[in-house]
Amino acid sequence: MQEKERPAGSQSLFRGLLLIEILSNYPNGCPLAHLSTLAGLNKSTVHRLLQGLHSCGYVTPAPAAGSYRLTTKFVAVGQKVLSSLNIIHVAAPHLEALNIATGETINFSSREDDHAILIYKLEPTTGMLRTRAYIGQHMPLYSSAMGKIYMAFGHPDYVKTYWENHREQLLPLTCNTITELPAMYDELAQIRESRVAMDREENELGVSCIAAPVFDIHGRVSYAVSISLSTSRLGQIGENNLIEPLRETALAISSELGFIESDRAIS
User: Fold this and answer.
1) Burial class of residue 25 in the structure, from the number of CB atoms within 10 Å of its CB (0-12 exposed, 13-18 middle, 19+ buried)
2) What does the DSSP 8-state code read for residue 217?
3) Which of 5, 61, 122, 162, by CA, is between 20 and 30 Å from 106?
4) Which tens digits make up the pLDDT trace of 127-173?
């Protein structure tokens, strides 16, 4: 923000926030002289601001003489912010943009025990297919795109346990449903690599679905977003034309939850 855009009397506040941002890059502490240079402020001003932040418990002297670092009070504040987030409020604008961009049904789910539960849905704007899915619906993990996302990014031992506990429920809903554990392991490995899961008419003939994971600040996947459409329309549009905007939407929501994308390439 430029100086002329800042509210009157807020100079010290903005300078203090600037110091906080700089110190966040120095977990072991930053010397006062270096901090002054990075902030473009004289040492006396920086020292005065640091004393104020120290008195509030946000900054503390670091082990190295003349250095300062942030305190864990920021962790507590950050956790309160994260816990207050309403996931639908955060995700809805991104999901609505995806709905407009693709014209297809957009689904958003959360993980609940051994199911994916649909918590938000947008009907197609141009596509003709109206899916039978409804908000509050529990979807099996093994036969749904979003369900496979949760298995792929869950605990490594979870899939085997899930398979053993639900053996009698793992029915072939269509001829494409994966019901053999080795085949599912192969499927999940591909999902982890591409960060995209497919339901290729595994729940219902004629209906396909593409899903992507939503990561939180800890890198966990508690939510997933998907696009549902008829298989014939998917063939007309092409998977790649939907996968990219889907990934971008999932990543945008992840970023709002505090997730920082690594440098790992997504193939």
Assistant:
1) exposed
2) T
3) 162
4) 677 777 888 888 999 999 999 999 999 998 999 999 999 988 899 99
User: For residue 189, what is the enclosing H or E element?
Assistant: helix 181-194
Domains of the chain, first to last? 3-80 (1.10.10.10), 85-256 (3.30.450.40)
Q: What six digits make up the tokens of 133?
A: 């899915």
φ/ψ of residue 98, rounded to 5: -65, -40
Length of the chain counted residue by residue: 267
Burial environment of residue 115 by CB neighbours within 10 A (0 to 12, 13 to 18, 19 or more)? middle
Global pTM reads: 0.71
The tokens for 23 are 């110190």
> How far is residue 72's CA from residue 91's CA, in Å, rounded to a whole number?
28
The closest of 226, 227, 181, 172 to 204, measured between CA atoms, is 172
8 Å CB contact between 111 and 119: no
